[in-house]
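Note to self: keep these together.
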Amino acid sequence: MPSDNVFLNDLRQCVGHNHLISPASDAAGELAPYLRDWRGRHVGKALAIARPGDTQQVAAVVRLCAQHGVSVVPQGGNTSLVGGSVPDASGSQLLLNLQRLNQVMGVDSANLSMTVQAGCTLAQVQAAAAQAGLLFPLSLASEGSCTIGGNLATNAGGTQVLRYGTARELCLGLEVVTAQGEVWDGLSALRKDNSGYDLRSLFIGSEGTLGIITAATLRLFPQPVGQVTALATCPSLQACVDLLQIARATLDAGLTGFEVMHAWPIALVKQYLPEQARAMAPLVSDAASGQDAPPWTVLIDTAHPSSDLASRESLQALLSQAVATGIVLDATVAQNQTQSQAMWALREAIPLAERQEGLMVKHDIAVPTSAIPEFVRSTQAQLAQVFPGSRVVCFGHLGDGNLHYNVQGPPGMPAATFLAAHEADVNRLIYDTALQLGGTLSAEHGIGQLKRDELARRKSGVALGMMRAIKRALDPLNLMNPGRLIKLDQDLD
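Structure:
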């Protein structure tokens, strides 16, 4: 390998002097935010950060790295929750930040598609679709900062998977820089193409370990005309699942979102984010997050092709039926956009509120929706036995079986102490239960560094063998985001 100075000078020739930052040139302290993940659990060091401005610059940087055996960590908005987009502690990896690739390349309204560069934020993509009178339905709490390249690299889910699917289902084509620095132009806008292996799907969800996504062609949808939101309280989690079944049967494709929230995370929002609490006060009574709160609240989002009135009438009829049968205790249907936004603000504020509450052992599990009540019942019983006094922040996308299930240690035990001593035990308990019920340890956040070893323990030997074969075939030098998602044989303990 050449000296760092020679290598860094070559990189500057690729991306421009102002778009390469090394520790030696970082007088302004620009590096630090790129090296720490959103949760602050993974902090690394980098040989340098390169910020290319187009696909050809990305390819040139990757070719240089391949020549000199330097591994590459791709990064978009750095919103990974599993340490997938920050370098390791060696200081020998190049961090390749793609935020300058931020152009909307075109919208084809007749084809219901758009092509964008990978560094566009999700909010930017949504806005460009809306400007054309269309909808890009992927929606996440971090949409103002996460990028579409990262969304695709992790196969992001979000709040509307129930109706529109994950990022994989919303992508028609990709442009990818391979581990050898070649550019694969797969920016097809076709919905049918049986001309070989589905390379697009191979790169989606690969977390940058097979190549670097630089652009994507995305599916768009007509803007729903009648969008209506409601909050409903339920006496049990089983009642929430029963309500979901009725909503599916009654609303069919008009059901676009079905979120569930336990009473405690709602109480945390009221405690730590009073502004959001004031906005939702007319919609969520004090009882909904107090001592006598109903244990579960669901947020239902619907759309109708013709009008708000038709959508509201359908939803009100559904909820009236559910109240009459005891599945729902109380319900509020938003009467305008402001109320609808306040309801969603409650749901989206939960991660911010729990962050202020302190460190927790966090999980992003999925099980079949029918198994969710048993998952919660079983894990709560086990946690009460092993860690008396521990509490769980439970919320998530009930409509697709995905729960965010975050465990706080017993009272009196510092959060950092609980994590250091018991995180592995809590993970084992949660993941064992999820897998026994036909679930997964990662529904939408990915694997990254945080869950890599857990994945290696829990995937079958056949599955791991195929994954390693694909990795070796496309990245034989193991330079693409190494140490994330999967260990190669030589890395195994």
